[in-house]
Amino acid sequence: MSEQKPVQWASKLGFVMAAAGSAIGLGAIWKFPYVAGTNGGGAFFLIFVMFTVLLGCPLLIGEFIFGRRSQTNAIDAYKKAAPRTAWFLTGWVGVAACFLVLSFYSVIGGWILLYLLKTALGSLSGLSQAQYGSLFASVIQNPVQTLLAQLIFMALTVMVVARGVQKGIERVSAIMMPILFILFILLVLRSVTLENSIEGISFLLVPHFSDLTSESVLFALGQAFFTLTLGVSVMVTYSSYLPKTQNLPRSAGSIVLMNIVVTLLAGLAIFPAVFSFGMQPNEGPTLLFTVLPAVFDQLPFGTLFFIGFLVAFLFAALTSAFSMVEIIVATIGKGDESKRKKLSWTSGLLIFLFGIPSCLSFGVLGGVQIFDKTFFDVVDFTVSNILMPLGALLLSIFIPLKIPKEELFAEMRNGSNVGKGFFYVWYYLLRFVVPLAIIIVFLNLIGIF
C-alpha cells in the first residue's frame, strides 16, 4: 500500500483566505454590532482592536507554530509534544467546542437562509418596525421552516468539506471571502452617504470613554479572543496543512487585519444607516433581523442592498462552519482522505441532530428550561463561557511550557526573517499576559469576577 500524501493547502493565499474565513464569522458580523451598540460604540471598538492586536494575535501565532510544527490533527499534536500526559484532552476540548458551536451556529445560518428567501420573495417590504419584530418571532418559532433551513445550511457546509482541503475549503473560501469584502464595501458606501449618517459614523469611530464600564472592557477582551476562533484548535488544524515556507507572523497579521477590517465594515454598514433613520443600535442579538430590514426597506433599492448584506452574512457563517467540521473530520480521520466524505456527512448529520433542540428553543421547546435557560442558551453559554476560554487558556499555557523556546523560535523563523526582539515580545505576551487576560475574562464570564 502506497503512503498517502499529507494534506496541504495549494497556496499561501488560499490558507490565509480559509483561516480568515474561519475567523470572520458570526462574531464579527452578528455579535460585534449589537455588543458594540450596547457597550459604548467607538470606545468599545478601540479597545477591541487593541486587545485583538496585543493578545489575540500572539495566541493566533502560537496556534500556527504549534500546528505547523506537529503536521497532524489537534489531538495527536498534543500527544506528539507532550507524550504520556493528559494534555491531549485540550484537543478534545476544541473538538467538542466546535461540535457544540456548530449545533447552534447552524440554527442562525438557517435564519439567514430563510431571510434571504423571504427578502427575495418581497415578504420583508413595507412593514413597520414592530411588524419586523413580529415577523422574526414567527420565523424562529416555525419548527418545520427552521429545521429545514438548518439542515440545508449544514448540507452546504458538508458538501464543501467533503471535497477536501484544496478542492473544497480553500477553493470556496477563495471565492467567498473577496465577494464578502466587495459586498461590505458597497454596503458601507451606501450607508455612509445617507442623510444624517455622520451620527452613526461618530458612534463607531469616536471613542467616548465615559460610556465604558468595566463589563464593557471585559466584553471587548472576550470578543477579541473569540472572534478569531481561538482556543478550539481550529487554527492548529488549519496550520498543520502548511509547508515550512509559510511566513506565520505575516499570515497571522493578515488574518487579524482582515478580521478588524470586516468588523469595521460591518459597523459602518449598520450604524450610519440605523442612526440615519432615527433607530437605536442597542437592540441586542436581534439587531440584524429586526432593525436592519426596517432600515434597508426605507432605502432606494433597499431590497437589493439587504440581499447583499445577507449574502455576505451567509458567506461569513459558512466559511466559519467549514473549519468547525474540518477539525472533527481531521481528528477522527487522522489524515486518511479516503474516509473524508463519509466522516464529513456523518459529522454533519450528528451536528444537525444535536442542534434540533437549539433550533426548537424558540418555539415548541421554548418552555423547556435548564438552569433558567433554553437549550440554545445552555449550549451557547457552555461553549462561549466555558469551553472556548478554557481551551484558549490551556493552549496559551501549553505552548511555552511544553515546547522549548529555541524550537518555537526556529519554527517561527521558518518562512520568515523575524528577529529575536520580535520573538521575545511574542513569547512573553503569550506566556504571561495572554493567560492572565483569559483568566480575567473566564472569571467574568462565569460570574466570579
From TrEMBL:
What keywords sit in the KW lines? Membrane, Symport, Transmembrane, Transmembrane helix, Transport
Q: What InterPro entries is this protein classified in?
A: Na/ntran_symport, SNS_sf, YocR/YhdH-like
In terms of superkingdom, the source organism counts as Bacteria
Is Secreted among this UniProt entry's keywords?
no
Protein location: Membrane
Membrane topology category: Multi-pass membrane protein
Entry's transmembrane regions: 12-30, 42-66, 87-117, 144-162, 174-193, 217-242, 254-279, 299-329, 349-371, 383-401, 422-446
Per the record, the major location class is membrane
What family name appears in the similarity comment?
Belongs to the sodium:neurotransmitter symporter (SNF) (TC 2.A.22) family.
Which PANTHER family does this UniProt record tie to the protein?
TRANSPORTER
Which protein are we looking at?
Transporter
- Which organism does this record belong to? Bacillus atrophaeus (strain 1942)
| Lineage summary | Bacteria, Bacillati, Bacillota, Bacilli, Bacillales
